[in-house]
Structures are given as structure tokens and as C-alpha cells.
Amino acid sequence: MSTRHSLVRILSVQVTENAEGSLIAKFGGAAHRIFGMDEPFGLCLVVDGNTVLMPAIFDPSELRTDVTGKVVRYLQENGGDVEAGQPYVEVEAIKMVMALKSSESGKITQSLSPGLVISAGDMLASLELNDPSKC
Fold first, then answer.
1. How far apart are the first and last CA of the chain?
2. pLDDT tens-place values along the chain, 135 residues long
3. Dihedral (C-alpha) 32, 120, 130, 74: value to the nearest 10 degrees?
4. 3-class DSSP state for residue 30?
5. Which residues, other chains included, contact 114 with Cβ-Cβ below 8 Å and sequence gap of 6+?
6. Considering just the CA atoms, what is the radius of gyration of the chain in Å?
7. 57, burial (CB in 10 Å: exposed 0-12, middle 13-18, buried 19+)
8. pTM of the predicted model, to two decimals?
9. Which neighbouring-strand residues pair with 70?
């Protein structure tokens, strides 16, 4: 039989907001500067100069872009099958055309029309997953 030991430590923290919108948290005898920003894929925190990304919940049935640009063309017909790792759309960003790949296999439903401007985080298509347990 194994025994688990857990250590609970209670900290007293003093938090103040400064004029630029960052937080100053004082605990353990030191002050720490914390700045947070909502990003398309989650919360980005900068703590004492170190960046930490806390991702939003990932849904593999949502195919999202991580670039700003425009949709050039979809590579599968609406309602067609796409395999994990297979390119499903071409987007143009900074005068370069790149193919974005599907993270899972399934039946694709296009969300946007070619030529539309996109921003990081926009959903380009959705998938009816072949393996719904991955959702």
C-alpha cells in the first residue's frame, strides 16, 4: 500500500494594479509584476518577464487559423472527408500562401468563403470527427 503525502501552504498575497494596467503581487518577501492579455488561443501572462500561455480549451472539431491574412481556397469539397495531417485550406499571410493541416480526421464543413480576411483564432472549418471520443 502506498501512502501519499500532500503539502498545503497558505500564502498571504497583496495585489495592487499600477497605472499601466499590470498587477504587482507581493508575497514571500518579493514583489512580482504580472501582465495579462487575452489572445485568440488563450490567456497570455507575463510574470517577471517570463511569458506563460494558458491555452483555451482545445476542440479538435474546430479548425482554426493561427495567422492573419485571407482565405485563398479550400482543398476539400464542403462535406468531403479530410484525414489528420492533411491540408484542408490555403491561406495568404504576408504575401505567402500556406496550407493549413487538419488535426483530426472527419467530414469537413467550410465556415468562410475564399477571399475573406481572417484573424488569428478564426474558425475556418469544422469537422464531424471520425472518432468522436477525441472531442
1. 35
2. 556 667 788 889 999 999 888 999 998 899 999 999 887 778 889 999 998 888 777 789 999 998 899 999 999 999 999 999 999 999 999 899 999 999 999 999 999 999 999 998 899 999 999 988 776
3. -170
4. strand
5. 71, 72, 73, 74
6. 21
7. exposed
8. 0.62
9. 92, 117
| Calpha distance 129→124 (Å, rounded) | 16
- Could you give the C-alpha distances from 87 to 7, 82, 120, in angstroms and in order? 48, 8, 18
Contact 116, 123 (CB under 8 A): no
CA 37, chain centre distance (Å): 13
Set of cell numbers at residue 5: 503525502
